[in-house]
Amino acid sequence: MTVAPANEVMGYIDRIDSGFIFGWGLDKDSDNDVSTITIETSDGQIVAKGVTEIFRGDLVKKGIAEKGTNGFQLPIHIDAKLKPDSKLNLYVNGNLVEKSGKATLEYHNGYFWGAVLKLPTNELNCTIVSESFEGESNISLYHNEGIIYRQPVMLNKGENFFKVNIPHALFDNTSKLISLGVDGFPFLLWSDYIHFQDNLTPWEYLKSSSNSQGMMALSKQAQFRYESLALNLNNQIKSSVVGAAHNVIAEGWQGRKKFPKLILPKHDNPEVSIIIPAYNKFELTYNCIASIILAFNKTSYEVLVADDNSTDETSDLEDFVDNIVHVKSKENLRFLLNCNNAAEYAKGDYIVFLNNDTEVTSYWLDELIAPFEADEKVGLTGSKLLNTNGTLQEAGGIIWGSGQPWNYGNGANASEPKYNYNRQADYLSGASLCIPKTVWQQVGGFSIELVPCYYEDTDIAFKVRQHGYMTIYCPLSRVVHFEGQSHGTDITKGLKAYQVVNESTFKSKWFQEYKHNGKQGVAPDIEKDRGIDHRVLMIDYATPNPTTDAGSYAAVEEIKLIQALGIKVTFVPENMAHLGSLTHDLQRMGVEVLYAPFYNSVFDAIEKRITEFDAIYITRFSVAEKYLDAIRARTQAKIIFNNADLHFLRELRTVGKTNEYTLEQALATRAKELDVLGKVDAVLSYNETEHAVILSHILKQDNIFKCPWVLSPKTAGKSFAEREGIAFLGGYRHHPNVKAVEFFAMKVMPLIAKANPNIIFYVYGSHVPEQIKMLESDNIKIVGFAENLDDVFHNHRLIVAPLLSGAGIKGKVLEAMAYGVPQVLTSVGAEATGLNHKISAWIKDDEQGLAEGVLQLYNDEQLWNKCSENSQIIAQESFSYKHGVEMMQKIFNYIGIYTG
User: Fold this and answer.
1) 347 phi and psi angles, rounded to 5 deg
2) Which residues contact 499 (CB under 8 A, 6 or more apart)?
3) What is the pLDDT of residues 20-58, one digit of tens each?
4) CA end-to-end span of the chain, whole Å?
């Protein structure tokens, strides 16, 4: 920012209220009607930023402004850490307003706290707690930074309660960010999303109108049904079959008397056998089957209805559903024996038990199967259960030290991060439960001592673990459960009475296994995580995307190594974004990911959660420098810092070469980076060169570790003769990659073309800039993002990595080693890889040497094979998963966290 000459800019901060700064700004030398406004503290922290967009007639009337919108109302940044009496500076178009542009952040009326609860009607219930103020003030509700409600109120010291009528304009069936403020206090008291329905009539009274305009979408399950329809149609599933199933689901099961024909898919060798136990209540079973047809899944299945000698339409099931397997008992076996009997008829490798009072969603089956395919130690999986109103019914179960079961998360928001990652659970609800047939046979099915029903799902989870397997809750498998429709809810009547009887049987049988599980109802958010010894909070700039950059690949592999030590990982990205499939990938791995709106910022996550972690793992110094002080102030947990690469070393290497950084900039980075290194407990770096540089500056050796890098085994590629061309692979948001391609294309390729004009240079990678695209020619092909790395490493004869600058380790170089593709690279590219010149690669730093390496390796099959074999041996020995776990264990042992 700059100090403006007199009269160039004008402005004033009128007031600070309820999380907003109000005022005006004017740049008389600018031709634009709108000015950029920045408000900073005296130490340079940005508090608010935006533009003038409010017309101020008072300024025109006083002759200060002739036209334009000069007023502003700017929200205070969430991350702004402001103290009482903080001095604020106003900048207009980057220039400081010397006069009338300063304000002091004041709390004349003391502190306030608040909350808002949406009532079932059209009202909001507001609570405001006043620390010391008593008297009249104004409360305001905001949406989109505008006031939607303002009212004078009398405030007393302590708690105050108010009901506010919701403006009609908000009732549009969407969720909105609503904020609460009070005059005289500079910050918002409360802010959260509230869903405003445009129809408050319960769905059960509207289902008969499901085909009327606007009604079908009101069901809480409508979003899942739309998703299923779209997925089925996109995958060319017969529309008439899916459409019939959708109509059934949309109309609902209550009071159904007509049962149009449903058609299940037919598979001679299904992967999964879905068993639906049923006794009468055909309308529920029929509805459940329709939902299975509608839900899109890639896993093949068969559906078996375990008919416990029903007397309604269930007994004529084949008349209503094609390709159904009807397992009908000659007598009433009751629930447990009925399930055991039906399992004898299952063809699939996996058995899924599904209550008939459920509605499944797309991918529910795929998600139940995925953990078995990822880890052979998994023996049982279960779905996330939802109530019909969209809230959570169960996210895996807890068995307390008293032996009492607990439906974790019952009634909560099903989207909260803590309910949405795969994890080991004490038990999984039998409403949607999956088990490999081999494990089912090993444990002997449901235990006979629990006949006729109840506690069989809890008991089998303990039996599965007794046999050495894990029991995994899978939140991306979503199943709506109309709880109580099968056996009712009264535990004194009918089969429900056996719930009490079997409770005693279960507790007696498994006492030794659950007796240390914690006091009932105390800290369920901690108790829910089974099979872990420690907890780590991992902070990085964004959610990793392993398909686009090596840093993301490394982050995911490091998470896996930490998990292998029995440590739960909670991940928080700086941007707080839920990035769809990328976030889901982490959650499937068992990583709890924190994201907005449940957490507003990294600071918010630190404030709310930091005390539960044994260690903090931060990647990149630009991230660490922001949060280290806040972490240190709130916890004694050890901090592991992964520098990813030594930024100041990378910057210094460009000085005099690419002019990307000046010496002064590199030295400034060094000062900040060394400050971070001095504040943490353990430093991780990918290469020995960086180790030496760090040691020379901080003079402490025992806390510097080489960060493990894991390479997975690769399939064999084509032979030397079948391959053609040379390739470069990298992400182009990383500037050294841009410079490397430019250097190779302009300096090295002309030398290669002179000797062999048929050699083509293929350039792969994401976010290709225009300056790289312009290099395209007869012997340079700009391919862009590589959908499959096999296409790169299996088809081309050589990989080149002509990096002129950079630091850390080069993921693309390591990948080529794992694939056994010989490489021509600079010494910067070869750092920390273990590659040696003419033994496992060709390493030269000048264009002539690089060109010579390409020509020799491209034409000499014997040298090519030698480098291929030797580089693969290095990859297998130095970058294996086992070696990575050992390295990571040493790091955690150093900070006092010991694992088995």
Assistant:
1) -95, -25
2) 454, 455, 491
3) 888 999 988 887 878 899 998 877 788 888 999 888 888
4) 54
State the residue for tokens 């099915």: 445
Over residues 281-299, the mean pLDDT reads 95
Q: How far apart are CA 897 and CA 525, in angstroms?
A: 22
How far is Cα 520 from Cα 873, in angstroms, rounded to an integer?
A: 53
How many CB atoms neighbour CB 773 within 10 A?
11
Spatial neighbors of 432 by CB under 8 A, at least 6 apart, are: 352, 353, 354, 355, 358, 360, 364, 368, 382, 383, 385, 477, 479, 481
Structure tokens at 537: 């909070």
Q: 793 phi and psi, to 5 degrees?
A: -80, -20
Sign of CA dihedral 435, 438, 442, 447: positive
In the block, which residue shows the tokens 């068993």? 275
> CA 493 to CA 500: how far, in whole Å?
11
Answer for the pair 267, 324: CB distance below 8 angstroms, yes or no. no
Half-sphere exposure of 70 (CA within 13 A, CB side): 23
- The pLDDT of 702-716, averaged and rounded, is 87
**Residue closest to 448 by CA, chosen among 346, 333, 351, 345:** 333
The Cα–Cα gap between 764 and 584 comes to: 26
pLDDT in tens, 776-830: 999 999 999 888 888 899 999 999 999 988 666 678 898 999 999 999 999 988 8
Say which residue the tokens 């025109």 belong to.
60
> How far, in whole angstroms, is CA 142 from its chain's centroid?
29
Beta strands in 712-772 (DSSP E): 726-729, 761-764
Asked if residues 207 and 251 have their Cβ atoms less than 8 Å apart, the reply is: yes
- pTM for this predicted structure: 0.74
